[in-house]
UniProtKB/TrEMBL annotation:
GN (gene name): STAT3
PROSITE patterns: SH2
Superkingdom of this protein's organism: Eukaryota
Family indicated by similarity: Belongs to the transcription factor STAT family.
Classification via SUPFAM superfamilies: p53-like transcription factors, SH2 domain, STAT, Transcription factor STAT-4 N-domain
Protein name, UniProt field: Signal transducer and activator of transcription
UniProt keyword Zinc present: no
Domain SH2 as annotated: residue spans: 569-659
GO MF assignments: DNA-binding transcription factor activity; sequence-specific DNA binding
Sequence intervals crossing the membrane: none
Transferase found in the keyword field: no
Keywords: Activator, Coiled coil, Cytoplasm, DNA-binding, Nucleus, Phosphoprotein, SH2 domain, Transcription, Transcription regulation
InterPro entries: p53-like_TF_DNA-bd_sf (IPR008967), SH2 (IPR000980), SH2_dom_sf (IPR036860), STAT (IPR001217), STAT_linker (IPR048988), STAT_N_sf (IPR036535), STAT_TF_alpha (IPR013800), STAT_TF_CC (IPR015988)
SMART domains named among the record's database cross-references: STAT_int
Length: 727
């Protein structure tokens, strides 16, 4: 099956990721119109060889013309218009640079393959019970059909129970009538009765035979009905509910948002109602048996097993239906759930997926540290905690918008227990205590394991622990996971890293950006797919030539993006992660003044810089860059304003801006002007020296420009960019 056709069958959550791959640079309509031809071309080769890229690009225009002719014959005006517009756009943008469109198409195809691989792997690992949209729909339809069948069989059983009761009442009446008249001997087969009596006895025996036959039919059908319930229940709890829990895990670490529980609640409530009806019918059998019983009575033989089965089914269904709807999370850090700081408020919410009004305000729930986790912690000598705040609530239907039975805990905090010697236990930042919460009365459920920290500076490594755990396991109570952390593949890590951006911004990471990160983690490689990464490599060990780990560096960049350059990132203006070799390769052919924005590789705290093209006196192309701007500088001035006001001293001692076009060819004013304050642009000037490092000076300092210039050139450090505060 063609790759594009396979993609169309993916589940909705994967299709949403597919939609993000395409833009005006390479429209999805064109991908669909020419799917077979596009997949038959070697775009990766064209991306690196201009002559082949030119050939493929002209062939692409030819394919568009052919497709246009087909739409013309079909009189499809809308598609004709769209295809004509697409062709004009491609010609105007890529006719002189066919390698660029080749790179874009190659990246899209690679991302598609990775998406298909992710969906396939998820299916094989049981992380997603439904790999494609078609299968999901069919399974849900089958499930709903089975639930309808169970409801119908339960109602049919109700009618048969009424028939049984009526038949038994008739038999009981006739039997007692004969007995009271003294016409019955000690057994029903007596030979001393008169002919009329024998006729009545024969009728009574026929009634007993019919009664026995109906009883046997009912217990047999009831056993089959319980088997059907067991099958549907396993489908609900082992597949649908387990799939929801896995998606909740993925959503916790930045993945696609989880679907709501309403449909599951409807299914589980329907099954629970049917089970309660059957339970009442089994009790009714017991009542009928107590009134009339005989040798070989099928109710006596089978009712205990039926009752045990239905009680077991209902108990297990209720246990499975009690879930953590919202995992523990500090309100101040909503994008990083499952990390709890001692003494800081956190919230969570539980829900019973059985919508019985009679349970409203009947279930009292308590949240506490899981006892099993506490015992393990005590054995290891780890930290132990108490929960403070309102940790007991009654489940009700008023706290939710849809009337579901739930309890939300909004005011909980953790306090660390003192050690036996009166001091505190070891709280080394590199060791985190994993535990989980239990919500119970007669029911019990667990949150995902949480990481408890005592200082907010521990947040980066704590979050890395949450990522690693939920990426690699769906076990809710594996508190010893980090005694020997399993390795991850680059494909798993790449997806999670992209989620860290897409979950808090409008953009994830592109294949080129991910390849740059892979190189930092694993070194140069032709294909990173399948390469293994250890927990230590990801979070503990310093990167080559650096004094900090990969995760510490990346986490600070994520923080930089969210707090200081979010709008520019969302616009796609920041190339971000790019190797210096790749940077030089794409900038060198560009005209002077073309620049790109990338993250610093040397700044532990997270920095962003820009690199531009210029010509020296001899006309030779040079690639220049500025020292990274960190959060400290961006606190005083936005990055857009820094770019707009950045100037250097040219050979004639005139201040000029070396930044003209944002790569590939977006005018600087068009890209960044809208993000500058109106008063900032005329009121700011920049000073620099020959090493292209600048000092941004507000308007109130302008009168001292000459003095400051003299100071900088005569005695200033030429390798140091000065900030306003230093001046």
């Amino acid at each position: 099956m063609a790759q594009w056709n396979q993609l169309q069958q993916l589940e909705t959550r994967y299709l949403e990721q597919l939609y993000h791959l395409y833009s005006d640079s390479f429209p999805m309509e064109l991908r669909q119109f020419l799917a077979p031809w596009i997949e038959s071309q070697d775009w990766a080769y064209a991306a690196n060889k201009e002559s082949h890229a030119t050939l493929v690009f002209h062939n692409l225009l030819g394919e568009i013309d052919q497709q246009y002719s087909r739409f013309l014959q079909e009189n499809n005006v809308l598609y004709q218009h769209n295809l004509r517009r697409i062709k004009q756009h491609l010609q105007s943008k890529y006719l002189e640079k066919p390698m660029e469109i080749a790179r874009i198409v190659a990246r899209c195809l690679w991302e598609e393959q990775r998406l298909l691989q992710t969906a396939t792997t998820a299916q094989q690992d049981g992380q997603a019970a439904h790999p494609t949209g078609t299968v999901v729909t069919e399974k849900q339809q089958i499930l709903e059909h089975n639930l309808q069948d169970i409801r119908k069989r339960v109602q049919d059983m109700e009618q048969k129970m009424k028939m049984l009761e009526n038949l038994q009442d008739d038999f009981d009446f006739n039997y007692k009538t004969l007995k009271s008249a003294g016409e019955l001997s000690q057994d029903l087969n007596g030979n001393s009765q008169a002919a009329a009596t024998r006729q009545k006895m024969a009728q009574l025996e026929q009634m007993l035979c019919a009664l026995d036959q109906l009883r046997r039919q009912i217990v047999t059908e009831m056993a089959g009905l319980l088997q059907a319930m067991d099958f549907v229940q396993k489908n609900l709890t082992d597949e649908e509910l387990a799939d929801w829990k896995r998606r909740q895990q993925i959503a916790c670490i930045g993945g696609p948002p989880n679907i709501c529980l309403d449909r599951l609640e409807t299914w589980i409530t329907s099954l629970a109602e049917s089970q309660l009806q059957i339970r009442q019918q089994i009790k009714k059998l017991e009542e009928l048996q107590q009134k009339v019983s005989y040798k070989g009575d099928p109710i006596v033989q089978h009712r205990p097993a039926l009752e045990e089965k239905i009680v077991d089914l209902f108990r297990n269904l209720m246990k499975s239906a009690f879930v953590v709807e919202r995992q523990p999370c500090m309100p101040m850090h909503p994008d990083r759930p499952l990390v709890i700081k001692t003494g800081v408020q956190f919230t969570n919410k539980v829900r019973l997926l059985v919508k019985f009004p009679e349970l409203n305000y009947q279930l009292k729930i308590k949240v506490c540290i899981d006892k099993e986790s506490g015992d393990v912690a005590a054995i290891r000598g780890s930290r132990k905690f108490n929960i403070l705040g309102t940790n007991t609530k009654v489940m009700n239907m008023e706290e939710s918008n849809n009337g579901s039975l739930s309890a939300e805990f909004k005011h909980l905090t953790l306090r660390e227990q003192r050690c036996g010697n009166g001091g505190r236990t070891n709280s080394d930042v590199s060791e985190f205590y994993l535990t989980s919460f239990s919500f119970f009365r007669s029911l019990q459920t667990h949150s995902l394991p949480v990481v408890v920290i005592s200082n907010i500076c521990q947040m980066p490594n704590a979050w890395a622990s949450i990522l690693w755990y939920n990426m690699l396991t769906n076990h809710p109570k594996n508190v010893n996971f980090f005694t020997k952390p399993p390795v991850a593949t680059w494909d798993q890590v790449a997806e999670v890293l992209s989620w860290q951006f897409s979950s808090t911004t409008k953009r994830g990471l592109t294949i080129e950006q991910l390849n740059t990160l892979a190189e930092k983690l694993l070194g140069p490689c032709v294909n990173y797919s399948g390469c293994q990464i250890t927990w230590a490599k990801f979070c503990k060990e310093n990167m080559a030539g650096k004094g900090f780990s990969f995760w510490v560096w990346l986490d600070n960049i994520i923080d930089l993006v969210k707090k200081y350059i979010l709008a520019l990132w969302n616009e796609g203006y920041i190339m971000g992660f790019i190797s210096k070799e790749r940077e030089r390769a794409i900038l060198s052919p560009k005209p002077p003044g073309t620049f790109l924005l990338r993250f610093s590789e040397s700044s532990k705290e997270g920095g962003i810089t820009f690199t531009w093209v210029e010509k020296d006196i001899s006309g030779k192309t040079q690639i220049q860059s500025v020292e990274p701007y960190t959060k400290q500088q961006l606190n005083s001035m936005s990055f857009a304003e820094i770019i707009m006001g950045y100037k250097i001293m040219d050979a004639t001692n005139i201040l000029v801006s070396p930044l003209v076009y944002l790569f590939p060819e977006i005018p600087k004013e068009e890209a960044f002007g809208k993000y500058c304050r109106p008063e900032a642009q005329p009121d700011c000037c920049s000073l620099t020296h020959s090493r292209k490092t600048t000092c941004n000076i507000p308007a109130r300092w302008k009168i001292y420009s000459n003095v400051l210039c003299s100071f900088l050139y005569s005695g200033g450090d030429r390798n140091q960019r000065l900030s306003t505060s230093q001046i």
